[in-house]
Amino acid sequence: MAIQGGRVRVLREAEPRAGGAYVLYLVQQANRARFNPALEFAVEEANHLRLPVVACFGLLDGANGFPEANARHYAFLLQGLADVKAGLEARGIAFVMRRASPAEIAIDLGRKAALVVLDRGYLAIQKRWYAEIAEGVDTRVVQVEGDVVVPVETASGKHEYGARTLRPKLHKVWDAYIEPLRARRVAVRADGLALGRSIDVSDPEAVLAGMSLDRSVRPVRRFRGGETEARARLADYLAGPFADYGTDRNRPEAGAASHMSPYLHFGQISPVEIALAVRAAKAGTAEDKRAYLEELIVRRELAMNHVFYTRGYDAYAHAVPEWARRALAEHAGDPRPRTYTEAELAEGRTHDPYWNAAQAEMRVTGYMHNHLRMYWGKKILEWSPSPEEGFARTLRLNNRYFLDGRDANSFTNVAWVYGLHDRPWARRPIFGTVRYQSENSLRKIDAKAYLRAVEALCAAEEDRPG
């Protein structure tokens, strides 16, 4: 139950501030009050210093909002933060939320902190926040990596070619990181600390109503945010549908998916907690468990590796490998049997009813099965006037509608459509030697059953006031 040393990095080397009023923990990537290594590290340090713990969150809003985030994303985030607030306060940890960037609130509250503790994400914007904090405070700053199983730099010191090269590196060390993490007892409660203004997120809908943001993409009710909801969903899943994961995971109509991706994206559940639960599950075979851990750890952490080691991971010229860009450029002038505008794609107005259904599921409910995400992306490439425009469209649609958009997995999966983590295939029009995916791939699923399932899901979402 120890916090592994490989998760801990010192961003600013200094002694803890003498006379500090508390240990400050910035809630940023790991939005949960349990199974959170950064939080437990902060509690350990605070107990050693005989100080309380203060957790803070910077809520980006208006013109300074998180890039591409809208009402759908913020509703889910705020639901989760209401859970965090309740969980922290029950443990005796104060929670402060303000309209500010994560760096701004951490630097402000860090002025009275003996020590500042950060969690870790891998996007460029997150790296900038962490660098600002390390520069902007004058006490010790420690970062604890808790939203992957194996810390990214422990797993690999370079950009990996694909899952086949990262997999053995992860397998070699992951058992040391798939360990329980207990909640530490707080020695000094933060009750009554004077911490200044704070937004009360206990009513997330009220906070959302007061924000200035894009409301054209509505919140969903298919998924509710929060670590309590995440754990309940995981328990229900492992007691039932998980038993068929090994055979049915690539069939979207079969209901074998766990739907953990939105919760992982927002840090509302730990991947280590999921891995432990999967290993301990009474349902499911060894193959079910192996296949699930492959997706949860190898595939997900390959995405973290790509984003961490790729400057410009959201740009076609940097994210797509040179061989694939060359192959696509050689066929950029090939006639497209069909092309669609981005608005037509967003509204699901193509000739392909199955693609339209996948787009409707994403647009209305914020989710699409991974098997269909690949088909969906390959068709956008085929139906766009150029590969560069196809890449940009795919990423914009992905980030706008998916609850788990704007994620390392999103950036990596979009680049995969264009050849990342893949190899050359047989040459064909438009795609060159980049992997093609045809309508024949839908023969592996019950496509008619999928259409019916999406129709029911969308009807449930749209049958509501507002």
TrEMBL record:
<keyword id="KW-0274">FAD</keyword>
<dbReference type="Pfam" id="PF00875">
    <property type="entry name" value="DNA_photolyase"/>
</dbReference>
<dbReference type="InterPro" id="IPR036155">
    <property type="entry name" value="Crypto/Photolyase_N_sf"/>
</dbReference>
<dbReference type="GO" id="GO:0000719">
    <property type="term" value="P:photoreactive repair"/>
</dbReference>
<dbReference type="InterPro" id="IPR014729">
    <property type="entry name" value="Rossmann-like_a/b/a_fold"/>
</dbReference>
<dbReference type="GO" id="GO:0003904">
    <property type="term" value="F:deoxyribodipyrimidine photo-lyase activity"/>
</dbReference>
<keyword id="KW-0456">Lyase</keyword>
<keyword id="KW-0227">DNA damage</keyword>
<protein>
    <recommendedName>
        <fullName>Deoxyribodipyrimidine photo-lyase</fullName>
        <ecNumber>4.1.99.3</ecNumber>
    </recommendedName>
</protein>
<dbReference type="GO" id="GO:0003677">
    <property type="term" value="F:DNA binding"/>
</dbReference>
<keyword id="KW-0238">DNA-binding</keyword>
<keyword id="KW-0234">DNA repair</keyword>
<keyword id="KW-0285">Flavoprotein</keyword>
<dbReference type="InterPro" id="IPR006050">
    <property type="entry name" value="DNA_photolyase_N"/>
</dbReference>
<feature type="domain" description="Photolyase/cryptochrome alpha/beta">
    <location>
        <begin position="21"/>
        <end position="152"/>
    </location>
</feature>
<comment type="similarity">
    <text>Belongs to the DNA photolyase class-2 family.</text>
</comment>
<dbReference type="InterPro" id="IPR052219">
    <property type="entry name" value="Photolyase_Class-2"/>
</dbReference>
<dbReference type="InterPro" id="IPR036134">
    <property type="entry name" value="Crypto/Photolyase_FAD-like_sf"/>
</dbReference>
